[in-house]
Design a protein that fits this description.
single chain; 584 residues; alpha/beta; DNA polymerase, domain 1; Beta Polymerase, domain 2; Beta Polymerase, domain 3; 4 domains; seven-stranded parallel sheet; five-stranded mixed sheet; 24 helices; globular; binds 2'-deoxyguanosine-5'-triphosphate; binds calcium ion; binds zinc ion; Pol/His_phosphatase_N; sodium; HHH_MUS81; hydrolase
Length: 584
């Protein structure tokens, strides 16, 4: 057990003691110890047999030293177990609601035996909190909203967080000679915008099914584990420090393909595929595709063999949502999906002239390193005061500098001039038309007044479209994944009008946004919209995040021909909306 896990468990014990009404001194001793253990550089697990050394750490007294030993040896302490037996572990979940401290939780527990978010929601519905002291209608409304927000985002993580966790774990696992392949499955492999938990499949000599270990022991020793949920014969589940659950499955190589197919999902895709297998006289499981009559294995080692035996093309994981991909694979008519290497330019990025971190030159050099043929520099406009947005004079000077840098780079990359101009509350643009007309790439975006009604926001965007300088609608819904809901918008109407006028709609590939979402991208294609994909990078590092967006385009069934910035530079500009006077 590492120090941070220990600190977390002691902190939890302090919360439980407070809920239990223990005296303040005792609660503080646990909190102080948790803080001390989180801060110390000594590895407590290594020195836990040496009481003198433990006592040297400020904040650790005799009884806390005993607790540390218990945590290292048993993963818990008698006091923690006793409190959890009384309240159950779900009561700690309540501390994740905004404004909900141990004192309030204690009140709810004593008044209505509330010990989880679910029981709290039920009690509110039943009106049980109304009579409690300091619980007005306003207070209760606040708690209800907290529960809604928590449930909406709860337990889910952005795809980049899931991927980062998968990469760290993969690196650790592959350091063992007994493992030779680690593959993410589940929602991460399908490229969904969020993941509920992380599923990893592992194979290699340490993964034989009939032996217990050493594979599972290697996994369970991962230093990132905050608490272990189960360690079975071929599966280890645990939480990371950020609360993300990870399921690692150890598999023999001969059934790796079947397992990968099964655990990639989605459930709906698997159900339909299994029905097809049954009709063909087969049974499909996580172990194999086998004949129903004599149970002989037809295919198991690779996904390709399984899909082929089912009479269909292999299906890219991003399409496995039971949205028509199975029929298409049977008919050999799956689309050729876009790939990251199809993209020739990134036309939405910021520099330190506004809220970016790097210069035009640095962004351009980084784009060259990404293999791009062109970029556009699109800083903010003045309405976004906190970004130091450009007014007309600065915007004109910025265009000149962009052109200078392009000349300095001597044809190594084309740099389009541009701006991300704010769509003001009434749909007007935050920059004079004469200035906008001098820029190649004018992206119009909403950054404020997210509270407007659906009618107001729709009219606002439609009005912005009427300005002939608008060539791209930036991050159309303004959503931030797990943080801010999309604005209310008549999306079909907006997309139809964009298609008529030739305004391209952006897919913002930043993993915090992924906006338009996969479903709306599919609609955009159906309605004949032009689509661009951009990173909206604010520093050179984030130029590399294009892949997260590409996976959303793939989920929308888009190919390279559906996306404008797969075109060479000259064709890219000429495929943007034509305006009265172009300067490109
Ligand atoms: P998530 O974790 O909520 O982001 O979504 P997934 O798709 O990763 O779901 P998860 O982790 O519950 O399961 C991973 C895959 O395993 C899932 O996509 C399909 C497969 N699977 C899991 N449980 C079942 C089941 O009960 N029936 C079927 N057919 N497939 C399952
Ligand atoms: Ca999952
Ligand atoms: Ca899972
Ligand atoms: Zn923006």
């Amino acid at each position: 057990m590492d120090n941070l896990t220990m600190a977390r468990l002691l902190e939890q014990t302090a919360d439980l003691l407070e809920i239990d009404g223990a005296d303040g001194f005792r609660i503080r001793s646990y909190r102080n110890a948790a803080e001390a253990i989180a801060q110390t550089t000594a590895d407590l697990a290594a020195i836990c047999d040496d009481t003198a050394k433990l006592l040297e750490i400020p904040g650790i007294g005799k009884s806390m030293a005993t607790n540390v030993k218990a945590l290292v040896c048993t993963g818990t302490t008698p006091l923690r177990d006793q409190l959890l037996a009384k309240y159950t572990v779900s009561i700690l979940e309540l501390t994740r609601l905004p404004g909900m401290g141990p004192k309030t939780i204690a009140l709810f527990w004593s008044a209505a035996q509330i010990n989880s978010i679910d029981t709290l929601a039920v009690a509110i519905e039943a009106g049980k909190l109304a009579d409690l002291p300091r619980m007005g209608a306003k207070q209760i409304e606040k708690i209800k909203k907290g529960i809604d927000d928590y449930r909406r985002s709860s337990g889910r993580f952005r795809i980049d967080q899931a991927q980062e966790a998968a990469e760290a774990l993969t690196k650790y696992l592959l350091s063992f000679a007994g493992f030779d392949r680690v593959t993410p499955a589940g929602s991460l492999r399908r490229g969904r915008e969020t993941a509920g938990d992380l599923d990893l499949l592992v194979t290699g000599p340490a993964c034989q099914p009939d032996q217990t270990g050493p594979g599972v022991d290697y996994v369970a020793a991962y230093p990132g584990i905050a608490d272990l949920i189960v360690k079975g014969e071929n599966k280890v589940s645990f939480h990371l420090a950020n609360g993300m659950q990870v399921d690692v499955r150890l598999l023999p190589g001969e059934s790796y393909g079947a397992a990968l197919q099964y655990f990639t999902g989605s459930k709906a895709h698997n159900v339909t595929l299994r029905q097809r297998a049954l009709k063909m006289g087969y049974t499909l499981s996580e172990w194999s595709l086998a004949r129903l009559d004599d149970e002989s294995v037809v295919a198991a080692a690779t996904e390709e063999e399984i899909y082929a035996a089912l009479g269909m093309d292999w299906i890219p994981p991003e399409l496995r949502e039971n949205l028509g991909e199975i029929d298409a694979a049977v008919n050999r008519s799956l689309p050729r999906l876009i790939e990251e290497r199809d993209i020739r330019g990134d036309v939405h990025m910021h520099t330190h002239e506004t809220d970016g971190r790097n210069s035009i030159r640095e962004m351009a050099e980084a784009a060259i390193a990404c293999g791009y043929e062109y970029i556009a520099i699109t800083d903010h406009s003045k309405a976004l005061a906190m970004t130091n947005g450009l007014d007309e004079a600065r915007a004109l000077a910025h265009i000149q500098r962009i052109r200078e840098v392009e000349r300095e780079l001597e044809g190594r990359v084309r740099i389009f001039t541009g701006i991300e101009v704010d769509i003001l509350a009434d749909g007007a643009l935050d920059m004079d038309d004469e200035v906008l007309a001098q820029m190649d790439v004018v992206i119009a975006s909403i950054h404020s007044r997210f509270d407007q009604s659906r009618e107001e926001t729709t009219a606002r965007v439609l009005r912005a479209f009427e300005n002939p300088n608008v060539r791209i609608l930036g991050h159309p819904t303004g959503r931030q994944i797990l943080r801010r809901e999309p604005v209310a918008l008549d999306m079909a109407l907006i997309l139809r009008r964009a298609a008529e006028l030739g305004v391209a709609v952006e897919h913002n590939a930043s993993p915090e946004r992924l906006d338009l979402c996969d479903r709306d991208l599919r609609l955009a294609k159906e309605l004949g919209c032009r689509i661009v994909i951009n990173t909206d990078a604010h520093e050179i590092r984030t130029l590399g995040k294009m892949s997260f967006g590409v996976r959303q385009l793939r989920r929308a069934w888009l190919g390279p021909q559906d996306v404008l910035n797969t075109l060479p530079a000259a064709e890219f500009v000429s495929s943007l909306r034509t305006r009265p006077q172009t300067t490109a």
